[in-house]
Write a structure and sequence with these properties.
By secondary structure, this protein is of the alpha+beta class. Helices cover 47% and strands 22% of the residues. It folds into 3 domains: 179 residues, no CATH class; 78 residues, SH3 type barrels; 156 residues, no CATH class. The radius of gyration is 38 Å and the shape is elongated. The two termini are 54 Å apart.
């Protein structure tokens, strides 16, 4: 095989093997360079090869002593070349330590060595398809081939090799996304199902987006676009689309029923900020909340307070489209606790109190005012009364009134419009 065929096959082979072993993002140009070098270096024993002409001062003596496709096309030659390059890297690293330059990236260097070694091995494998084969166990003279019938093994530079070059070139292009995202991620991308997106999300700590086409469940109107994936529930994705939170899947029990989807990973880290607060008024609470971003967590409400959403909070409006109802509840009340799941500051600001709560507070304040007046009158009557029996009765009424006032003050304190809780802000 010729150098171009070895190069494209070597890149494909190297990137795919690295991805299979979990080494992602191997598309650094230096790794490609070492893969190409490893793919053509075995032909150093051939003076008319590309690498042989470039390094003729090594190639000619090597060819005279051993001949073509001998030591350099064997496991021994592969081992010698790999160890030699590794020793060169070690010497360079020690030199950088001595000079205190620290310019050699060890993580990247190990990938250089792996790329070189794998591509070298790919050359030996590919040459086994040639009529002459390779002497993998040199100095054993036996040649190793794939396909016993020599007529089926293509000659170097033949039309068959041109076809193989084009096939390997396509494989090389396909190996780029596999190398960048990994084998499993690439497979999940090809599957293009909500379940595959969920599997990809489980170990992800960066933002993830979705390009989709589908219909709204309620209106059956078509919808497509890009959205941010927030989370998942069962087999349903929770997404942020047009500033609203929706559920999305292929099933009919979600807000958006999707027909086609593709996910896109990013390197943007999720920014989560936790905030604990105590005894804040609504105004103070709103001042703590970010204008942009989503809010999750718990807010502890005053006793007996019930909240209700603004009528428009469950709708997503578009100037050109019919409003579509989202079934996902970003705000839910359980007892005296308000549960937030990807709510916005606007939604929290639009919360309305139950009228009965405000009416109860008003009644208690009115009753407290009346009892305070009664307490004053009883105190005056007690001071002016000369009858012991009447004084005892007034004193008893006075104590009962004080007790009622204490109970009302305690009730009003519990119903005081102060909020506590813990929240997580997602930007």
């Amino acid at each position: 095989m010729l150098a171009p065929t070895h190069s494209v096959f070597g890149i494909f082979f190297t990137l795919t093997i690295l991805a299979l072993f979990g080494v992602q993002a191997s598309l650094n140009w230096t790794i490609i360079v070492f893969a190409i070098l490893g793919a053509i270096i075995p032909d150093l024993d051939h003076s008319r090869s590309y690498i042989g002409r470039l390094l003729w001062f090594i190639s000619r003596p090597l060819e005279r002593k051993f001949g073509h496709r001998t030591i350099t096309h064997s496991f021994l030659g592969w081992l010698i070349a790999t160890v030699s390059l590794g020793l060169i890297f070690v010497l360079v690293y020690l030199l950088t330590l001595l000079l205190e330059t620290h310019t050699l990236n060890l993580a990247l260097t190990s990938r250089w060595l792996a790329a070189f070694s794998l591509a070298y091995l790919s050359h030996l494998i590919l040459d086994m398809f040639n009529p002459r084969g390779s002497q993998l166990f040199w100095p054993n003279s036996k040649r190793d081939v794939i396909l016993k019938n020599s007529n089926l093994r293509p000659k170097s530079g033949s039309r068959t090799e041109i076809v193989l070059f084009l096939i390997f070139f396509i494989f090389m292009l396909l190996s780029f996304p596999i190398s960048k995202y990994g084998v499993l991620t690439s497979l999940r991308w090809l599957l293009a199902t909500p379940e595959s997106v969920i599997q990809e999300m489980q170990s992800l700590k960066t933002k993830m987006y979705l390009e989709f086409e589908g219909v709204y469940r309620i209106t059956k109107s078509p919808v497509k676009g890009n959205c941010e994936i927030l989370n998942f529930e069962g087999k349903k994705l929770i997404v942020l689309f047009n500033t609203r939170v929706f559920t999305l899947s292929e099933k009919s029990n979600t807000d958006i029923i999707t027909a086609n989807l593709r996910f896109k990973k990013t390197y943007t880290p999720l920014q989560l900020t936790q905030k604990n607060f105590e005894h804040k008024t609504k105004f103070e609470l709103l001042a703590l909340l970010p204008t942009q971003g989503l809010i999750s967590g718990m807010i502890y409400l005053p006793q007996n307070l019930k909240v209700k959403l603004s009528p428009t909070d469950n709708f997503s409006f578009s100037f050109f489209d019919t409003p579509t109802l989202s079934s996902y509840k970003t705000i839910t009340q359980i007892g005296s606790t308000l549960l937030l799941n990807y709510a916005t500051k606007k939604e929290i600001a639009n919360l309305q109190w139950d009228e009965t709560f405000e009416l109860t507070v008003l009644k208690n304040k009115t009753q407290l005012a009346r009892l305070s007046l009664d307490l004053t009158q009883l105190s005056q009557q007690l001071n002016s009364s000369g009858n012991n029996l009447n004084q005892q009765y007034l004193d008893l009424q006075l104590q009962e009134t004080k007790l009622k006032i204490q109970e009302l003050n305690l009730s009003l304190k519990k119903m005081n419009m102060l909020f506590s809780g813990n929240l997580i802000f997602r930007n």
